[in-house]
Amino acid sequence: MSSEIDRPTTSSTVDALAKLSFAVQIVLTRVAAEHDLSVTQLRLLGILRDRTPSMAAIADYLALDRSSVTGLIDRAERRGLVARRSSAEDARVTLIETTPAGLSLGSQLAHEVSVAMAAIVNKASDDDLAGIARLANALIDEPAGRAVASSI
Amino acid sequence: MSSEIDRPTTSSTVDALAKLSFAVQIVLTRVAAEHDLSVTQLRLLGILRDRTPSMAAIADYLALDRSSVTGLIDRAERRGLVARRSSAEDARVTLIETTPAGLSLGSQLAHEVSVAMAAIVNKASDDDLAGIARLANALIDEPAGRAVASSI
DNA sequence: TATTGTTATACTCTATAACTATA
DNA sequence: TATAGTTATAGAGTATAACAATA
User: In this structure, are residues B144 and A24 in contact, taking their beta carbons and an 8 Å threshold?
Assistant: First the structure.
């Protein structure tokens, strides 16, 4: 079943990708939890750092149903992190923007994620990191089925 | 702020890791959802493919509170995928094993994940994949804070 | 006393279906 | 008619605190 060539087996490659992914998720979950946030809320604050998207656009970014986004924004708004604003062009559209508090928390989270991820990044060589960056960018350019926007 | 050396900035590296991680999670979520499973249940079946762990061990694998595992196993048991068994050595301990149905579904899921991940794997060179495997293994050997067991 | 697992409770997250308002 | 967003509802997932059984 296995061969002695250099290319890793599909199985070990898939396993490595999954392990790496879970390691990253654990870090993100922990950083978010330290601020009583979910990973989804953390991603939301990342998205809103340089955008003022509609509810529908947020649903696309996060690959969620729009009804899920309603609750997500409700909870973020209740905590004073984001605000709803009506679109001037289309009265059906609700735009979401960060409050100063949300922007500040988002910046702090980005910094804490960088620090926490150092434990992972420091185990990789420059070449390995470059490979991961190449792969990540390739996925963005031509997403596998769904949009893969992240922007922590 | 930025320099012109080869090593990627911490920020872009962290972003690439996060993007890659979310891309993998989206694939896993989709494959699991096609069988009405969560990613956690998918991971559970992966863990049970070659182990018969205690509730506490599962909590460690998945980095969950034990009370969360109780519900997780309740739902899996209700679907006939796993079964509780008492330990002969220690009457406090409950061991979890797959049913034939759970084992079969676990194997099928592993295969489907491999197929679905091809869209990601195929975008990477052999060297890049080897780098990811190196990093994943380094994380397992010396986990960053918590256990990083996965075994899809 | 310490550990294993469960229960009670409360919250977040998510989807589906039905709805309102606007285009 | 079509689209944007919400509401109602249901269920999964998660944690904290308190508990029973066993070591």
Answer: no
